[in-house]
Amino acid sequence: MIGQMIRPRVGYGSLLSAYVSRTLVPTSSSVPASIHLTCQSRSCSNGSSGSSDNSGSGNKSVYNWFNSNDITRNMAPSDIANYLQQTHDRVFESNRAWADEQKKKDPEFFAKLSAGQSPEYLWIGCSDSRIPAEQISGLGAGEVFIHRNIANLVVNTDLNVMSVIEYAVCHLHVKHIVVCGHYGCGGVKAAMTPKDLGLLNPWLRNIRDVYRLHEKELDAIKDEAARYNRLVELSVREQCRNVIKTAAVQQSYAKNQYPVVHGWVFGFEDGLLKDLKIDHKQMLNDIQKIYNLTES
């Protein structure tokens, strides 16, 4: 049930949760110690030219990524190869077990899936591996159409998310669009850090712009953790506004009174979803002065 505590469940969606917990963006020293940028052999180029790397060689600058939760960090190469094969095989073992379980519960389960999809929800969430949308919402296969990216952003120049919204609204006729962020988001934290993060810069700029729009409110929050959490919420609200700005959503809502856009935030500490209570109709009215796409 949406909004209730998550019950422990072993499934294909959480196969490796006992082994790894990854964040995909480099963060400042104030971020939890599990993620660091250090001088390790594993590195990623930031794609900018003319800057020096950590060795001072004058080549492209390099970000060295290090996840202290990475179980392979102290393994020998041969052990890493064995570990990778085992984790690969475990997915297929669990997949077979999951498929058998579904057929036992409902012999027609896969026949129904093969017939097509008609989900009620479009879920726009974060790529964070700890947030499986179906599990935390109680929604099953075929009930939710899912798009995920770093920090659950809805950017008008991102053809991926724009195509997802168009398809979900115009072809699947979803009734709800959920933008779901989460507290402890590495993307939001990175955006709060005034540093050059290479290729991530243009993506995180969208969150930094949210901070700029709400700078007075955020700067008035003295507690850093509380300010961080509030930026997560404000970013979700802004992404909901970006969804409502789209022609597909506006035109469908004018004709059908759906989809309705919602902003939710997931908390790791209690497993609960917080409803930010987005007023879809009011937000639509507010933006249509310059974003009215229902009239030709």
From TrEMBL:
Catalytic activities: hydrogencarbonate + H(+) = CO2 + H2O
UniProt cross-references to SMART domains, sorted A to Z: Pro_CA (SM00947)
An MF annotation (GO) of this entry: carbonate dehydratase activity
Cofactor note: Binds 1 zinc ion per subunit.
Segments crossing the lipid bilayer: none
Swiss-Prot/TrEMBL keywords: Coiled coil, Lyase, Metal-binding, Zinc
EC top class named in words: lyase
Source domain of life: Eukaryota
Coiled coil (UniProt feature): 204-231
GO cellular component: cytoplasm
Database matches in Pfam families: Pro_CA
GO biological process, one term: cellular response to carbon dioxide
EC assignment: 4.2.1.1
Protein residues bound to Zn(2+): C126, D128, H182, C185
Amino-acid biosynthesis is among the record's keywords: no
Family assignment from sequence similarity: Belongs to the beta-class carbonic anhydrase family.
Biological function: Reversible hydration of carbon dioxide.
Record's protein name: Carbonic anhydrase
Source organism of the structure: Xylaria arbuscula
